[in-house]
Structure prediction request, 237 residues.
Amino acid sequence: MIPARLDSTRLPGKLMMDLNGSPVILSTLLNTIKTNLFDEVYVVTDSKEIYNYLIKHHKNILFSKENHVSGSDRIAEFAKDMEVDIIVNVQGDEPLIDKKSLQKLVNTFKLDKYKKIDLVSLMKVISNREEVENPNNVKVVTDSDDFAIYFSRSPIPFNSASNPKLNYFKHIGIYGFRKKSLVDFYNSKPTKLELIEKLEQLRYLESGKKIKMVISDFDGIGIDTMEDLIKARSLFK
Prediction:
């Protein structure tokens, strides 16, 4: 499921901006379908402009009737009434979606015989100091089984020993959910740490959900600025 909100704060209208001949959101949708990993692919949007455009290209376009704070809430509005086991949330502004990374999410659930995992998400090793200190890059620390302990916009863990070989893990915001976990989130209220850090994934941790993190080399091009869009256009060529 692809949540698609038109009114982006940093780059308003970005999902309908041109990406070498078609809007960003259509590229994301078509590339997600092309992975052939999913039984169904949906877009959930609060924009009539996006809905009216996409419905000409794909049948599974859903118009959100409620105001939502997060992408999880937006897809949960419809997923809660669907007969599904696993829902994967692909960001609408990630047109260069990576099949290998999505396959890792799906496979992690398939291997989880005892259903100990509530969510699966991706992380990538970063070591560049500028990247580490950038609050737009969310960092994650995990336990010995790669379950998330905490997410933060600050560099974590704190490098008290000034170890030059210390790697940090950047959270890549692609999620796979068991349906119950997504519905529980939808029926809950924002939590303390979630509001402090402005990170919805902390609500899952604060409510006791288990988030399995999978290492990936995928970084993607999350289109948040005009510079990101220009870079994506170049890569698409």
